[in-house]
Design a protein that fits this description.
alpha/beta; Nucleotidyltransferase, domain 5; DNA polymerase, domain 1; nucleic acid binding; HRDC-like_sf; RNase_D-like
């Protein structure tokens, strides 16, 4: 009907949108514990019974750990959750035991299922739990191109259940642990087996199962990272330190705070925040009164440990010039990409070409580009290529270099020719 053909009643009738006519979407049901909340395992007898139950179960074992991040200095596990078909869910208090080797023996070579494995593997290894094989549901979600890969989001998207997340940031070192917290923790492994199976099927369907297998094997076999060099350089706001002596004062204050935090097993930021360290480092006060009068120098330990802060600042003031740390950190890799154009225009061209082509390929595969190849590997290789554009062995050498960095075979296969092309095209344009 045209506007000229409309009747007055039709033209004056209120519009009703399709959205208004459609029924509201059904609310996603809340995930609930199928077997109720189990008691916390905190005696040798209970641990032996749990190990026997796990050994009698079938299939992979869903595992999670809760740490007291933001409350404690250590990254130890304060609760371990397990679930296996035929075994049910177990909540184990690792603080009650010297180690959990009895549980490790019960799991044996069975596959672990974790979400964001790199977060939990170190603290689980501390208590004797180390996987032979694993399946990481977060990493699987990344390889499949899911835009959000948090556990709650994947469970809602794939399993169709909504998870409680209100206790995600609580102090898990609390004893006894409240029942609502324990229920939250138990729910984290409730559907991991179901989620794993759904993601594994999708990996097979999309031809990405082998990629995932290599990634999971890498998680199991990769050597743990060594101590971070100059960890004090991670102080937030360090760039505001005015000169090398102020940087030295940041270092001395950070180290004093770290020693106190380690001794008390309290997260360092709860003693004095990073911002207080930078303020004091710039002011370099000589006595307690002046220090405590600095605007921004606050925190629970500002006054309590004032003597230690004053001593740290005295040490920084007394350092000779040749012992002051540089304002920037030492790095054995290439310079920041923003400096490439000035320092080596051809290298900058290589990086630009490679980034564009890698992004295009990753988009085709519905894969985050950083999962297709670690950006640091790209920068290192393109700053100093293993051979020039006329070398017949260039593809082989690029592949070897990537493997030496730590790239998995599937990553080398997908990215080697893209990087070779960038090396050749940039040289041709020079």
């Amino acid at each position: 009907m045209t506007e000229e053909q409309q009747t007055p009643e039709a033209s004056e009738a209120p519009e009703v949108s399709a959205a208004a006519e459609a029924p509201p979407p059904p609310e996603v049901p809340l995930l609930e514990l199928r077997d109720g909340l189990p008691p916390v395992v905190e005696t040798p007898e209970a641990l032996s019974a749990t190990a026997a139950a796990v050994r009698a179960g079938t299939g992979p074992v869903a595992i999670d750990a809760e740490r007291a991040s933001g409350y404690r200095y250590s990254a130890r596990a304060y609760l371990v959750q397990l679930r296996r078909e035929g075994s049910g869910t177990a909540l184990v208090d690792p603080i009650a035991f010297e180690d959990l080797s009895e549980l490790q023996d019960a799991i044996g070579d069975s596959e672990w299922i974790l979400h964001a494995a790199t977060q939990d593997l170190p603290c689980l290894a501390e208590i004797g739990l180390v996987p032979s094989t694993l399946f990481d549901t977060e990493l699987a979600g990344r390889l499949l191109g899911y835009p959000r890969v948090g556990l709650a989001t994947l469970v809602e998207t794939i399993v169709g259940r909504r998870m409680r997340k209100e206790h995600s940031a609580v102090d898990w070192s609390t004893r006894p642990l409240p029942a609502p917290w324990l229920e939250y923790a138990a729910l984290d492994v409730e559907v991991l087996v179901e989620l794993r199976d759904a993601l594994a099927a999708e990996l097979e369907e999309t031809g990405k199962a082998e990629w995932a297998r290599q990634e999971f094997e890498h998680l199991v076999t990769a050597l743990p990272a060594g101590p971070r060099q100059d960890p004090w350089r991670r102080t937030s706001g360090l760039h505001r330190a005015r000169g090398r002596r102020a940087v030295a004062a940041v270092r001395e204050l950070w180290q004093a705070r770290d020693e106190i935090a380690s001794r008390r097993d309290v997260t360092p930021g709860r003693i004095i925040p990073d911002s207080a360290i930078v303020e004091a480092a710039n002011a370099l006060p000589r006595d307690k009164g002046t220090l405590l009068g600095i605007k921004g120098f606050n925190g629970r330990g500002a006054a309590r440990y004032a003597a230690q802060w004053v001593e740290a600042l005295r040490t920084a003031r007394g350092l000779p010039e040749d012992e002051l740390p540089p304002t920037g950190s030492r790095y054995d890799g290439p310079p920041p990409p923003r400096a490439w154009a000035d320092r080596d225009p051809v290298a900058a061209a290589r990086l630009t070409i490679a980034r564009e082509n890698l992004k295009e390929r990753a988009d085709e595969l519905k894969l985050p580009v950083e999962n297709m190849l670690t950006p640091d590997y790209v920068r290192r290789l393109l700053w100093e290529p293993p051979a020039d554009k006329d070398d017949d062995d260039l593809p082989e050498r690029v592949g070897q270099r990537l493997a030496e960095y730590g790239a998995r075979p599937w990553q080398v296969e997908l990215t080697r020719d893209i990087l070779v092309t960038a090396i050749i095209e940039a040289a041709d344009e020079a």
